[in-house]
């Protein structure tokens, strides 16, 4: 720890301090996602880019950028939305913009271990600099890179004149990196904290003292909107996938999920299971019923005990589950108490007779000494401010209890005190970093009391693996763990493709996916479920997402466990290759089954006389839509189950612009568009508002008139 923190109030001053400390070669680490101090990084990038005598090598991940319009219509649509979503002053990361546009300063390198999905797929420099790492290995490998500066965005809270600081969105790697460097005897890097007034404050493991830093920057220039993700629509196929996946979740278990439409679909299904259980069961029946695996490891009933969240990423889904009464099982960092909870001996609120049960289970000592008294107060079994006086425990009220619990009357006296007390310091959600919507950040800001105390942001080395000295407690807390992650493709033999294409180009990164797959195998009752849509594209462009083989693998087939598509659940754990192929065929899109069967047969993985069951032939988008249609008419599967950041007019325009983009991708489509545009008549009353939103209600040129006709054609398609 540093002995004294230097406080600064100007970005330029902090940039100068970093340059003075690091010299000509800056090797900087910055958190992934939300934890980057954009304004400071921009100031530093500009300073280095203007000085050929210096170099900057930035090690980071997930450099978030606002979307960029690729056509005039997209620009007209996007700019007003982006200003509403991010404000007029949101500072994009200069280095990320320069890298995206192919003009990164020659004396700057950017090495990322996770990239915004698909954004840099065709960017040669970013592809060459990509570092393939499991999330839990980042600190270890960065420690060998000679990092001399670490920058981090912070949250601050003032209480009774006392300043509190938090690593907030990103306690994931910073502390692990410092510990790793110290263990190797390397010099401590300059640690720069940048206070952001709008960053939600998180306590517990994320809270740190000011002396953790060398420099603290508190400049009003750093006060801007946080990067907020727009909420995505959920398709019927994704809703179906979410229903199947939700049936694998056991009440009283543990949940890990990622972000995006598939995650939203799981959350929606879990809430439907909780709040409208009859409709939930009906929907699953309409999809063909639940899998045998669901009956074995999951359930369909409401959540009485609730779930505990242990996820590298904390996002909107956990907010909805907490609000909906699903995310409510709390875990306690006391092995004996956690054992008693897991065994059902006690609940989170103690009842008469619990002292005897705890004593019999070894969760209460025979003699209460100072360490035991501190533990009982910390866990809430006794009120705070108790003290030990000889052979008695003195309560704040003055009441005295025997410290020797070997006799029944002493335990009975303690039982009267403990009855109705609620256990404290429980956690209902632990994560390594958070990222989400504006509504999610507002929720974090508003948390109070037990809801605030029960959320913990901590090191990724704790969340993403069992190792680190508390494996037994972690395994107990994460009982019945269900680790849901998405992949792009899967093979019929159970390998998963999640992060890159077969030519080596990286779409995103492995992140923590391998960590959670491995942990699911390490936990006695844990399961890993990889989610994917059975097909992608439509019409003649449709392709199966389940392949016989593929030239890149993220999760190897020897770690195969569970796959889920919109057509069901494939349980591959411990199964033969033939059984795995059959299970994957059963959840494939029927349009591609025969091709897969042919390849499997030629490879000797299916018998030559294998016949595809008739039920698998019904795995089509049309059958799926028909099955869910009655529920959609009842409003159960709204495309935006958790609301949208777009207005109704914008939603209509978004669909129209997507259609225009798709149609303009071929010569035939372009000719069709021209024909439709030429036939477009004057705007109808209900179309005027959409044209006003694009500034095309009163075209001022032939070009604008042509754009107006294209938009009208798309709206009327």
From TrEMBL:
It comes from the Bacteria. Residues 436-599 form the Acetyl-CoA hydrolase/transferase C-terminal domain. Keywords: Hydrolase. GO terms for molecular function: acetate CoA-transferase activity; hydrolase activity. GO terms for biological process: acetate metabolic process. InterPro entries: AcetylCoA_hyd_C (IPR026888), AcetylCoA_hyd_C_sf (IPR038460), ActCoA_hydro (IPR046433), NagB/RpiA_transferase-like (IPR037171). Pfam families: AcetylCoA_hyd_C (PF13336). PANTHER family: ACETYL-COA HYDROLASE, ACETYL-COA HYDROLASE-RELATED. This is Acyl-CoA hydrolase. It comes from Tahibacter aquaticus. The lineage of its organism: Bacteria, Pseudomonadati, Pseudomonadota, Gammaproteobacteria, Lysobacterales.
């Amino acid at each position: 720890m540093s002995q004294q923190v230097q406080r600064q109030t100007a970005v330029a001053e902090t940039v100068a301090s970093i340059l003075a400390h690091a010299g000509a070669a800056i090797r900087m680490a910055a958190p992934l996602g939300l934890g980057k101090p954009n304004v400071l990084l921009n100031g530093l990038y500009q300073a280095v880019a203007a000085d050929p005598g210096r170099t900057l090598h930035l090690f980071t991940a997930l450099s978030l950028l606002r979307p960029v319009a690729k056509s005039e219509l997209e620009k007209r649509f996007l700019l007003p939305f982006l200003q509403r979503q991010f404000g007029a002053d949101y500072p994009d990361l200069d280095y990320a913009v320069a890298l995206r546009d192919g003009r990164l300063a020659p004396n700057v390198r950017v090495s990322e271990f996770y990239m915004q999905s698909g954004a840099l797929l065709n960017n040669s420099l970013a592809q060459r600099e990509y570092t393939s790492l499991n999330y839990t290995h980042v600190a270890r490998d960065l420690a060998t890179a000679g990092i001399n500066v670490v920058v981090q965005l912070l949250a601050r809270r003032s209480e009774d004149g006392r300043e509190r600081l938090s690593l907030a969105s990103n306690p994931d790697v910073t502390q692990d990196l410092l510990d790793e460097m110290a263990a190797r005897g390397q010099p401590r890097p300059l640690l720069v904290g940048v206070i952001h007034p709008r960053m939600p404050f998180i306590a517990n493991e994320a809270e740190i003292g000011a002396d953790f830093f060398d420099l603290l920057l508190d400049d009003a220039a750093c006060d801007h909107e946080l990067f907020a993700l727009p909420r995505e629509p959920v398709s019927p196929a994704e809703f179906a996938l979410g229903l199947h996946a939700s049936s694998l979740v056991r009440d009283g278990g543990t949940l890990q999920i990622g972000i995006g439409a598939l995650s939203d679909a799981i959350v929606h299904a879990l809430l439907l299971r909780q709040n409208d259980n009859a409709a939930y069961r009906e929907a699953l029946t309409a999809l063909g019923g639940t899998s045998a695996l669901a009956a074995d490891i999951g359930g369909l009933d409401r959540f009485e005990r609730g779930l505990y969240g242990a996820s590298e990423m904390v996002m909107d889904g956990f907010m909805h589950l907490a609000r909906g009464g699903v995310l409510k099982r709390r875990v306690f960092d006391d092995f004996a108490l956690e054992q008693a909870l897991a065994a059902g001996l006690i609940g989170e609120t103690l009842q008469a007779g619990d002292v005897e049960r705890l004593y019999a289970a070894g969760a209460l000592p025979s003699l209460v000494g100072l360490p035991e008294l501190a533990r009982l107060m910390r866990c809430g079994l006794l009120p705070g401010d108790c003290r030990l006086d000889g052979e008695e425990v003195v309560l704040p009220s003055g009441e005295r209890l025997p410290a020797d619990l070997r006799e029944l009357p002493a335990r009975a006296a303690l039982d009267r005190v403990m009855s109705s007390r609620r256990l404290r310091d429980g956690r209902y959600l632990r994560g390594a970093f958070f990222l989400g919507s504006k509504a999610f950040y507002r929720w974090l800001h508003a948390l109070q009391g037990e809801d605030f105390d029960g959320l913990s942001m901590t090191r990724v080395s704790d969340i993403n693996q069992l190792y680190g000295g508390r494996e037994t407690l972690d395994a107990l807390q994460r009982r019945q763990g269900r680790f849901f992650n998405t992949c792009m493709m899967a093979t019929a033999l159970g390998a998963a493709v999640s992060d890159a294409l077969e030519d080596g180009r990286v779409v995103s990164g492995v992140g923590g996916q391998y960590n959670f797959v491995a942990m699911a195998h390490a936990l006695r009752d844990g399961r890993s479920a990889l989610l994917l849509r059975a097909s992608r594209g439509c019409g003649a462009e449709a392709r199966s997402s389940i392949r016989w083989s593929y030239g890149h693998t993220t999760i190897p087939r020897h770690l195969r466990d569970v796959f889920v598509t919109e057509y069901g659940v494939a349980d591959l754990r411990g199964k033969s290759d033939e059984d795995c192929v059959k299970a994957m065929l059963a959840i494939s899109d029927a349009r591609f089954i025969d091709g897969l069967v042919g390849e499997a047969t030629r490879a000797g993985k299916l018998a030559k006389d294998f016949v595809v069951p008739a039920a698998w032939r019904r795995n089509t988008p049309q059958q799926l839509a028909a099955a869910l249609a009655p529920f959609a008419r009842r409003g159960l599967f709204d495309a935006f189950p958790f609301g949208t950041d777009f207005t109704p007019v914008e939603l209509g325009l978004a669909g129209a612009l997507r259609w225009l983009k798709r149609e303009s991708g071929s010569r035939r489509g372009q000719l069709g568009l021209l024909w439709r545009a030429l036939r477009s008549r004057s705007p109808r009353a209900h179309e005027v508002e959409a044209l006003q939103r694009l500034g095309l209600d009163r075209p001022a040129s032939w070009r604008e008139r042509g754009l107006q006709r294209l938009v009208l054609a798309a709206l009327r398609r």
